[in-house]
Amino acid sequence: MAIIGIDLGTTNSACGILTDDGVKLVPNRLGVTLTPSVVGLDEIGKLVVGKTAKERLINHSDTTVAAFKRLMGTDHKIKLGRQQFSATELSSVVLRSLKEDAEAFLNKEITEAVISVPAYFNDNQRQATKQAGELAGLKVERLINEPTAAAIAYGLHDKREGNFLILDLGGGTFDVSILEFFDGIMEVHASAGDNYLGGEDFVEAMIDSVLEELKLKKSSLKPRELQNLYMQMETAKRRISQQAGQLLKLNLSGREVEWKVTSEWFEKLSTPLLLRAKRPIERAMRDADLPSAKIDEVVLVGGSTRLALFRSMVGRMFGRLPSCHLDPDTVVALGAAIQAGLKEKNSALDDIVLTDVCPYTLGTGIVNEDSPQLGSYFLPIIERNTVVPVSIVRSVCTARDNQTEVCVDIYQGENRLVKKNVCLGELTVPVPKKPKGEEVVDIRYSYDMNGLLEVDVTVLSTGKTFNKLVEFTPGALSERDKAAALEKLAQLKFHPREEEENRALVARGERLYEASLGEQRDYISKLLANFDRILERQNPVKIGKVRAELNKIFDQLDSEDWI
Amino acid sequence: MNPWEILEIDPCNDTRTIKRAYAKQLKQTRPDEKPEEFQQLHTAYKWALKLAEEMEEDAAPREICDYENGAEAEMREATISEHQLNELNKDSSLSLEESTSIRGSANEMVVQSVEATDESPTESTKKKESSRQELTTSTQPVSEEALENQCESEYGQEESTVEELYQEENDPERERKIAEYHKVLGQVGELLQNPREINVEKNWHFLTDTPYMLDEEYNWNLGLSIFEGFARFNQQAIQSSSKGKDQVLIPPNILHYCNGLFDWSGNVSHLYSALDEELCEVIFSALQNDTLEMDPLQGLRGGRKVVRKKVVEPTETYDQYYFGHLLARGIAVLLDLLLIYVAVGFISSIVIMKVYKMPESAATTISLGGCCLLYLVMAWIAESSKFQATPGKYLMGYKVTNKKFERIGYGHGLWRVLSFTLTLLLGKIAWLINCFLGGNLMHDRLSSSHVINMRKSREEYLRRLRGEE
């Protein structure tokens, strides 16, 4: 039985598999390897995923959603039409679609996957990703960090030894990892990142700047205008380095505005984001304790690293050109697929061992007697960039006389005060009444290869151990929630696979129809009506022919390049 | 622990050999299969690398900086890296003292370190430290000069140092950079004199207008000058407000914006070594007390609406549950009735007397009957609500649950109230039977619900956990 590797991205997702003749990317129902991470419901309540959904984002934005990865591990729910979905459920829909693609491609059932997550994802976000896999009917025993996956793909591709700096700037997250590759060992020295920095933020900054200039407010725009603006800015961002001085026609609040996209303008609004990107790089270099001269190769991963500004910044930082000879969009999926093969103990890869680190500090809160108004102090248990799997025990004692319970809060972060770190959960254990300081509990944190944390608390005097009773985790599903979510998702079906190409085409046509006026509009409407008639006749050969023609026409009409 | 034994090689200073040995061992000790052995192996490997480095250094003695020694001593203990942070902090405070003492003879220092940075990079940390120091000393006077007007402080005498430094390199690019730096600082000064404009983030966007922002040297110098300007500004504002005068502070949102651009919080130790502790405190305490939270909704597209699920407190579960006592439940009912009578019944009986001119006894009977009906409605709502109890039961620490000891729904709650009314019809016989049912009364059984003494259940549970049986 095969295990697939999945890159579940903010903007795009991809899926790969290791076969006897190398790593292969799985084409989706449209025949391409990238599936936009967009989910929607159509008029008859069926699920729409990928390109079709992305086309529908413009005109049906209230039933379609994109870039929900950032909400993983939070309690937010998104309303699509009348139903509410959590980010975990939406991700599971994307995963299910990828799973079906892989099943169709390999012609066998798939029940297990390795999913990549940003290295800087916290425990809640990792748990949520794992659960998304389970909701999609995939057993997820292994999560792999995205930069590590990329490094595996590169390491295997090049068979080169040395220190690599991997910069992964995706749609919504930025990750930095420093790895060493030698004798079939892949050792991660340090990881750092920013969970709120990615290509989408550049678009967001462009939009904020445009609206500020035109004295408009985001909330005053109609959803369609806003989504259209997003699409136009995304296109402009992609073309910025080839095409200087693009002229855009923006339709905002009922008036038409011409907007000139100059590289100076883009440069100015990118600067704060690029400065933010520098921080994790500097921190990872500091943590790895490596001088920049010892970095043998700087590798760029993620679609947003195509930005020339980002490249030149990296070039300036390291005094050399970064390399990116594998497709930055799919390299993570390739790496995840290799890891999946490794897990399956594919003989060809038996000689590779991977060691990873925990990218952030994990600890607990301890009573702060000096300045109680600041809240508890943070007591680190596992320091950041400790090699994993690791298991560390620290002892704490009671703070008050006759204390009956000890509450162990589980926190992640670098601040000395717990309230500024991320709460991962808490666990309360009862202790016998004693004068303060006499009761001691051992707190054991075990961090596994997947980046998931397990906590054991032992009360020394009674010898009782309480484990993994993480009673409260934001965004996590209890068994009951999971059953309910499974039932809800089972009600939602995809359209038949073979229809998907037609549906994507119609969705694109509809978007173009709404975006155009006058004669062109009539023309598109006629084309679509004609296509509907042909679809009804159900002659596959004829449909295929017309579809190809229509695609060509739409390519000419469409000025956007955003998928 | 002997690292060489674990790696199964003889002590050597060849890192290549150590790595090869580690790789060989690691393939038998895969981290996912033998986590503990792996940790041991990894510690041995790191330790062996350090030892090898030391041997190398002993062979060819060179200058070793303090930082390395500290780190090595740590590795030898091979404990959790917990101490390493402390050690680092100690080191940075050490360098802090050094640099302040050096500042007096800044002239020489500057020239030296400029040369040092021109050389090929040797020690990353060391280099960074020294380049930071150089920049620190060089900009100190400039920033103060530029901000003189509103800070009312006169420190201009060190000007010659800057001039000299800038003469070191006659690179036109660098001159442009310096000109830009002065220009921007001027703008900052102007903006600071305009108290109404300070707190608008947009007004500060000019800082990113120049591509030099991405230049390490420019960024650090400008950041330092602005940091100092801000600190002095806020310090003065705090002082004058303590005297009763009202002066604007630079608000946290602007501080966070600039912190994002100049990474002050990432360079805490450098800033402390460059400026007075008090000045740094002004800014850092403001940044600390008001943290910037990233909005996860930023960038999310589409969807009709985003709702934040309320965090449901998970109900605790115990291994054993105790039924409520019949007598206590009776008292709870009486308490509830009393509450309703005081709140509603009493007034309504007066109203009935006055308006309908009924005799007092009749009015009281009617309102009492009304109270009983009201009680049933209240019991239904209260017991099905998240409190799971009427006020009387709540006081007793009782909760109404279903057979799985979970909260009952409103439908189930209605059925429970109905069953209660049904048993009431039996009159005194119901009371008699209930006495023998051990807390699980007739209407409880009929509606398959329980009234549980949660307080007792919890206490007993905790007592058992503590092992005090």
UniProtKB/TrEMBL annotation, chain A:
Belongs to the heat shock protein 70 family. Keywords: ATP-binding, Nucleotide-binding. This is Hsp70 family protein. Pfam families: HSP70. InterPro entries: ATPase_NBD (IPR043129), Heat_shock_70_CS (IPR018181), HSP70_peptide-bd_sf (IPR029047), Hsp_70_fam (IPR013126). The keyword Cell inner membrane does not apply. It comes from Microbulbifer epialgicus. PROSITE patterns: HSP70_1 (PS00297), HSP70_2 (PS00329).
Automatic annotation (TrEMBL), chain B:
Residues 2-69 form the J domain. Residues 88-147 are annotated as: Disordered. It is a multi-pass membrane protein. Keywords: Chaperone, Membrane, Transmembrane, Transmembrane helix. It is found in: Membrane. It holds the Pfam family RDD. PROSITE patterns: DNAJ_2 (PS50076). InterPro entries: DnaJ_domain (IPR001623), J_dom_sf (IPR036869), RDD (IPR010432). The chain crosses the membrane at residues 326-351, 363-382, 414-437. Signal peptide: none annotated. Residues 91-104, 133-142 have a biased composition (Polar residues). This is RDD family protein. It comes from Microbulbifer epialgicus.
